Amino acid sequence: KYCKIDVKKTAIIPSFVNSLHLTKNISKKRNNFIYVGRLSEEKGIVPLLNIIKDLPKIKLTVIGSGPLKSIVNEYKEYKNITIIGFLPHKEIYKYIKGALFMIIPSIWYDVLPNALIESFACSIPVIVPESAGMKKLVIENKTGMLFQNGDFLDLRTKILNAFKYKKKALIMGEYAYKTYRKKYLENIHFKVLMKNYEKITSKV
User: Fold this and answer.
1) Which letter does DSSP use for residue 139 in this model?
2) pLDDT tens digits for 12-29?
């Protein structure tokens, strides 16, 4: 049996990115896409790689590790795909800042992936599935693009469209950064956290 929880008794506490690791050095010559995350089936990394390998003009950088590491490494044979592997967070940001878009091809329902916040913090828009959670995080054509859940043909179309409109990506990136400053800073996380603690302790 499922436990019924009153929605009024729940709260969303957004995560954050450590701004100490960020700089304002953003590349104006961005032309590649990036994936940052766990190399696992539910993250949709292999379907993404299968899309990119057939689009030689589209470049993809993959950063991360996980159970599909050996399978992902097989895609190194394609000249437009760069597999880097695991990196510390402070080293990842320089790669994100050089990207046109961050692609988050999740098959499962991600609620608030850290990669999305990191992308916004680096002024990079995202391409994400059109799940209920993602639709609340990403504004279509303002902070990113949405593709139909599990429809990788639609994702392919969105990637090609994103590659055509590079100037628009810069504008979207600026809006994404404003969203980061408004929602995902350390002090905002702390304030929301303390506010909810206060609510709980006041009822004890």
Assistant:
1) -
2) 677 777 665 565 555 556
